Amino acid sequence: MLWAAAATAFAQPQLHDLDIHVVLQRNGDARITETRHMTIDSQGTECYIVVGNLGDSRLSDFSVTDETGQTYELQPTWDIDQSRQWKTNRCGIVTTRDGYELCWGIGERGKRTYTARYTVSGLLRSYPDADGFLYMFVAEGIKPSPEHVRLVIVPEPGIDLSADTARIWAFRYIGDINFQGDSIIAESSEPFQSRSAMIVMARFEKGVFQPTLAGEGTFEELKTRAFENSDYTDEMTREDIVALIFTILAFVVFPLLCFFGYIFYVWRKRRRIMKDLLWYRDLPYGGNLQQANDVLNAYKYFGADYNNLLSACILRLINDGAISIENQRFVIHQLPQDANYPQLLKMVHKIFRDAAGKDTILEPRELKAWMKSNQNQSYTDSFVQTLHTKTSLYKYHNEEDEVRKVFGLRKFLQEFTLLDERSVGEVGLWKDYMIYATLFGIAEQVIREMKRINPEYFNMDQVAQQMANETTLPIIRSTMHRSTARAAMSKAEREARASGKGGSSSWGGGGGFSGGGFGGGIR
Known about the structure:
Helix content: 25-40%
Largest sheet: 8 strands, mixed
Strand content: 15-25%
CATH topology of the largest domain: Immunoglobulin-like
Strand order of the largest sheet: 4-8-2-1-11-14-13-19
Shape: elongated
Structural class: alpha+beta
């Protein structure tokens, strides 16, 4: 019985490859060719393609051929209840409430290849702000589900289609969509599931095509609807801005002058701040770590660092009792009840608490899994945005006294070894000094000097001992750093994809599409 059941399951029809080739004509019509590489068994009598949601578009010129070159006879009417024998080498169109079903007989068993051709008028439409389409090329619920789908969209000769004149997005399958020369190529990387479909959206500058049919509303409204429940974000990224600037300027000398001018500007600002710099022993900006880190980043020549800030936040949470290290385990506790508690610290604590789960013990694998989960993507995006604050030197034009305090504290901690004695008041700030030494990237040096000056301090103060832990802390820190970097890269990639430059498809979204529908395959 098991053997028979396995044999039956194995013998089910299979759709190995679905290749779709679309030629976009200047008037917006599309000539579509679908090639199916299949294994046919005794089940079913016909293949059919669902083409619905066409509005005032029309379907015409339907034909089918197979691997032998046989052209199927087009029937004026198609009866889906006819026998398999009657349907062999025949094809026809069924008009439904939502559109059409393109049908043909599956014929003999074995490895078969069917090529269906048809034209959809007005697939690409005109909008006030652009021309474009949002079309479902592979319907949801197709059975058997295709193991691989590849869609190639090309313009008719004489039309320039490229990343310079178009933007592209894709929905409802696992794979990607990209430009290749004058072609748009969407391809799945995993077999289709029951809820998979292939929806492609493209936007073209006015003048590339001259569509005869107009769409409803604007293209931006269509795009907004399609983006709902997707993982695309509609934001202009830093890469977009840089590309726009270089496109406008398109010179070499001027950018170089700007570059060296910026270097000189930062050098002068740094020199002004560092001149006659004295030690500062208190906490700048009222102890706000993020504001101090913004100062450090603003006065760098290039780049920005947030890893030290994350590490300092973890130490601050330990100092505040929200985290403890017990038996080499990271234990998460409640946050202090303070309405003015920094937002970044709240977000780090929430991530740790949620990742730790009910037992409140945070393990590195739990933290990594939580930040990688698509379910938590919205929160991790918000966290990355809160962490990566953008500052400029101009902001600190009237804050030089506070800026000097930040660098004065760093100078004090860097030269900690020059003093052999500490007053009681200063020892009371040692935990804060450890936090800021971490922010400045000199924690190892400062803690070593603290232990040399007052070795009993770390034995008497349990919290300070946990903050200097050399076993558990580095593991959590490195996991948090890597996970945050991964989340930031993922967010940047989605923003670039959202601008229409191609990339991986979105599993969700695509609402408002034309074409497709539900069903298709073999029946």
